[in-house]
């Protein structure tokens, strides 16, 4: 089954998340497929940048609770996006939830359309945005991080841009991406790699310093009774026991 579709146009490799049956949720299979495609892009001298997009109305629904990826594999995926010597640009025209925000925040540039929405829903499941903090916290406005980490509220593309989750909120996403992709095509491969290395250095150091602890914290939360109740309630479309 094909979960990632790769196409190319004038130096831009487009990777399309194509698992609409589960709203492009982060299953072990999808994470593995995306890592493989990124490795292909990294080794291809004709690829100047990667455009990450999606089919359907959801960019990424977060972890697939029926077949979740190993936390280490997902951390490796985020790190590989950050460390890729080629810019990764996100094209978002749908919803992004939970772990999907970590994937989005790993990208260098992101443009979101009017139909997109965002939410960190982990606290409502008895979990926390643990490993995705590696990419989210260096990017997000601190006050907004406090609010949305704790409440799980949904917010729109304009708010996502205000709090620096995405680069731009646009009525026409493809039109907004035109100057971005043109600029990347005009840049030299060496110039892009060296420039990206400068802006991602702090994030990569945080992976080295905190990833192991956050993986352990995430695993402990997923194994807890409270999280099991939260995830079961979500799959059964009911309120968890703690809702009053």
Q: What is the N-to-C order of secondary-structure elements (H for helix, E for strand)?
A: EEHEEHEEHEEHHEHEHHH
Model regions low in confidence, pLDDT < 50 over at least 5 residues = none
Range of helix content: 40-55%
- The proportion of residues in beta strands is 15-25%
Average predicted local confidence, pLDDT: 96
Q: What does the largest sheet look like?
A: 6 strands, mixed
The separation of the N and C termini measures: 42 Å
SS class: alpha/beta
Structural features, described:
With 244 residues, the chain is an alpha/beta fold. Helices cover 48% and strands 18% of the residues. It has nine helices and ten strands. It has helices spanning 28-43, 71-83, 99-106, 133-136, 142-151, 157-162, 173-186, 189-222, 225-235, and strands at residues 4-9, 12-17, 49-54, 58-60, 88-92, 95-97, 109-113, 117-119, 154-156, 168-170. It is globular, with a radius of gyration of 17 Å.
What topology emerges from the helices and strands here?
Elements: E1 4-9, E2 12-17, H1 28-43, E3 49-54, E4 58-60, H2 71-83, E5 88-92, E6 95-97, H3 99-106, E7 109-113, E8 117-119, H4 133-136, H5 142-151, E9 154-156, H6 157-162, E10 168-170, H7 173-186, H8 189-222, H9 225-235
Parallel strand pairs: 2-3, 3-5, 4-6, 5-7, 6-8, 7-10
Antiparallel strand pairs: 1-2, 8-9
Helix pairs in contact: 1-2, 2-8
């Amino acid at each position: 089954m094909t979960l990632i579709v790769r196409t190319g146009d004038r130096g831009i490799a487009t990777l399309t998340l194509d698992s609409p049956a589960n709203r492009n949720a982060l299953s072990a299979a999808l994470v593995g497929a995306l890592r493989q495609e990124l490795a292909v892009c990294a080794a291809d001298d004709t690829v100047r940048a990667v455009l990450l997009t999606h089919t359907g109305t959801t960019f990424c629904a977060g972890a697939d609770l029926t077949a979740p990826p190993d936390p280490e594999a997902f951390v490796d995926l985020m790190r590989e996006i950050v460390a890729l010597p080629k810019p990764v640009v996100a094209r978002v025209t749908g919803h992004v939830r939970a772990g999907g925000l970590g994937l989005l925040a790993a990208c260098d540039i992101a443009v979101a359309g009017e139909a997109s929405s965002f939410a960190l829903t982990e606290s409502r499941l008895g979990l926390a945005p643990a490993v995705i903090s590696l990419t989210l916290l260096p990017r997000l406005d601190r006050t907004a991080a406090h609010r949305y980490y704790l409440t799980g509220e949904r917010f729109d593309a304009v708010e996502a841009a205000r709090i620096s989750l995405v680069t731009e909120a646009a009525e026409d996403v493809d039109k907004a991406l035109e100057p971005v992709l043109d600029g990347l095509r005009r840049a030299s491969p060496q110039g892009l790699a060296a420039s990206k290395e400068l802006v991602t250095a702090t994030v990569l150091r945080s992976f080295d310093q905190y990833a192991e602890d956050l993986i352990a914290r995430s695993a402990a939360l997923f194994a807890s009774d409270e999280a099991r109740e939260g995830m079961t309630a979500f799959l059964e479309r009911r309120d968890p026991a703690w809702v009053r």
